[in-house]
Amino acid sequence: MKPEKLNADRVGLLPKLWGWAKQLALFIIFAIVITAVMDIWRGRDIPRDNLPDIKGVTLTGSDIDIKAMSQDQAVLVYFWGTWCPVCNFVSPAVDTMASMYPVVSVAMNSGPDDKMSQYLSHKGYGFETINDSNNEIARDWSVQLTPTLMVFKDGELIHYTTGFTSLPGMWWRILLN
To answer: Which of 76, 94, 97, 145 shows the smallest number of beta carbons within 10 Å?
Structure first.
């Protein structure tokens, strides 16, 4: 190939790359806006004032009090179920978050404690789990969709989202606190 032809090809490639980069940036901005609007819409039934406590005993026997835990740092609370197909994709990311940040999960209607412990062990999950076998905590919080993720800081609900949430999505929600 002639050198003039190579330079012409390079010059033509740069505007294409710039155009693709602009399209990608616009797509990312659009996705963030849509996600934020969906979070607000789906979270409209979650109480914001006079919040009920999330307290309980985990499957490992630890006493949990989210309000007290969240005084020092942000805490991720994960409502999920073993029966939830989307949770199968979100739980590994929650487990990764649990290795870096305080995470408490509330397993909704997922069976007796021994079965839950076996499930968590089989999957290799290390996050603390409160077994909400009768959905009492979920009802108090008006949680109807799984997975539901909440971030608490200083005893207050800061972020709320439902449905599939990626690991980067969880990170930015924690880091914004």
So the answer is: 145
